[in-house]
Amino acid sequence: xxxxxxxxxxxGRRIFKVDTWCSQFRNGSNPWMARYIYAxxxxxxxxxxxxxxxxxxxxxxxxxxxxGCHGARDCLGAEGVLRVSLGCFIFYFTMFLSTTGxxxxxxxxxxxxxxxxxxxxxxxxxxxIIPFVLPATVIRLYGDVAHFGAGVFLxxxxxxxxSFITWxxxxxxxxKAADRCQIHIMLLATMAYVxxxxxxxxxxxxxxxxxxxxxxxxxxxxxxxxxxxxxxVSLHPKVNAGILTxxxxxxxIVFICxxxxxxxxxxxxxxxxxxxxxxxxxLTIISFIVAVLAMVIATFSTGIDSKCFQFRKDDNQDEExxxxxxxxxxxxxxxxxxxxxxxxxxxxxxxxxxxxxxIDVGWTSTWVRIVNEWLAVCxxxxxxxxxxxxxxxxxxxxxx
Length: 400
Prior knowledge:
Layout: H1 2-18, H2 21-27, H3 31-55, H4 57-60, H5 75-99, H6 108-114, H7 117-129, H8 136-172, H9 178-207, H10 214-234, H11 244-262, H12 282-303, H13 327-346, H14 363-399
Helix pairs in contact: 3-5, 3-12, 3-13, 5-7, 5-8, 5-13, 8-11, 8-13, 8-14, 9-10, 9-11, 10-11, 10-14, 11-14, 12-13
């Protein structure tokens, strides 16, 4: 029995290398290619939600069930986004339930994950249409739940990013690569800190044109303080985590701070050239496209990191027939990602007026980003300090 399964595994791996792309798609033989198809479907759902929000008002007004938005100008568009998001969530959550626990390539659930595309496309279309006939109360309830689901996605993404930074630092400081990578670590860390400082200075220039912009001054200055705090804790003799991880984490929190300030509603005096940003220009369109692609890529990269909560490397070696990534976790990330893109497109508020070709704009979005930045620093500092605390506690218990 083991011989046959091993032979089928070897045969399947040979198919990956020999068969054409179309043949692999038809036979459902390649789980690595399947993840790109799921990402493409997720991208289409994003674009569909945007089209419903910005250009679907004329078509959706004929549907009686979409009315009753309490007089808000763009509430209809927000409900359309939530309906598309709900359909996307149901599809990926169904895939999560049907693939979770899959461990071997020879299992039928693995074939379901990597194949049966005609059935799954029909299922995806059906799940996209069904929410448009549901009552508005159900959609509003989903909108409330989506706030929590989007927060779960941000938390998973945060742990994944910190896990990657820690893994990169451990690889560079390993016994085999310590001498060879020492110069590279210094160059990479120096470059990270330089970019952080340039980013902070640029934010002061572009987002603090007047001394009265106290909130932006607080956001940017506090980010600089957090960067210094992470560096000091990392270089503490009892922690001794090096200079690379705080530098990379600094890049991450500076980027989040920039996204938070960019999410502030236009027309204010604390954004340089804000009066010209009220018009839809090519820069706005390009920024929107980049934001959508970044959201899809972030969901994709987080989804394939099924071991993002495992900070210690397993001693058990992976067998040849093991699945290349966690199918259930992959679909769960995309399910929460569906809630996340809904929150970005409606500014985390169903009754918030939204301008065309914008994403993640509004004071709610700004504070969500800022809290995410502070939470990232807290998680990172806890990862540095926790081993020292546990070590000291064990020493006290041992002494007693």
